[in-house]
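Second attempt. The first submission of Universal stress protein UspA had a stray character pasted in from the spreadsheet, which I only caught after the job came back as garbage. Lesson logged: always re-copy from the clean sequence file. Corrected sequence (316 aa) follows.
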Amino acid sequence: MNGPTSTKSPLHLPARVFVAIDPYGASEHAVAVARRVIATSGAVRLVSVAENPLTHVPAGSLVGDALNAARAELSEKAHEAVVAASGAFAQRNVHVEMQTIDLSQHGGDVAHALLEDARAWHAQLIVLGARQHHGLVRWIEGAVSEPLARLADCPVLLVPETCSDKVGHSLDRLLFAVDGSEQAMQAMRFGVRFATNVTHVRAIYVVDCAVRLSDLVPVDILETAFVEEGTHALAAAKSMLAGTSARVGTALVRTDRTRDDIAHAIVREAERWHADLIVMGTHGRRGIVRWMLGSVAGRVAQITRTPLLLVHPSEA
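This time the job returned cleanly.
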């Protein structure tokens, strides 16, 4: 890989960035990050979804004028959110498109409405805010971000509602979580688009030292194997990153022996190192295999306060 020629801006930022806009205020940081990562002269599409009021009230509770008024209010709120978000790109040399999707006319759910629009627009990156809680407020949270991240045809950048305001100004510290797989290497190839030769880039491999009752092999033997695999994975990562930045670091990170897992170790390291972005590959598991094995990337998305870039196996 050829080294960068500029210390000011990355070489290959996405030119078509799709931003999911939350009508209820969870997209402020996502919009700031989208403004930061789009290529000069690129295009940004800001899309908000007005939910069908009938999905939130008992059947028959809203009829006639009351139902029409509820639909109009939700649609207007979504439109206002898109217009407000567009102001963030006023000083950027980018083309801005705005769209509001009315689910009472479109049908379906929020996640699939966004996915269909992003696919039709040929998005190169989807950016969305992430609410990491449950309850009555359920817009860009698990019900939307999880299927979007899993089913999207392009990388997805999740920006937690609780992340620092700093992310809108710089992505100077990129943390790559690697596991020795080709998926992780592909994620790195995409993630380095956001780096310059003065960006701090760091690759980590998590050695899972946690003791579990279901373990059939002594944890010390597993740990030795993990360290060996991690050493090789980090060597490959360092070789790739060396062609991108002059500020490259790698580290083996260990989980605690009890009450810990790989996802929490990644999130702790991101916070300790003050990362501006975590980059991870996903393994694209489906069905019962995904249910049994879970998803480290999915668990990181649920708990991180650092923006998370998820790259599927075929996207880099």
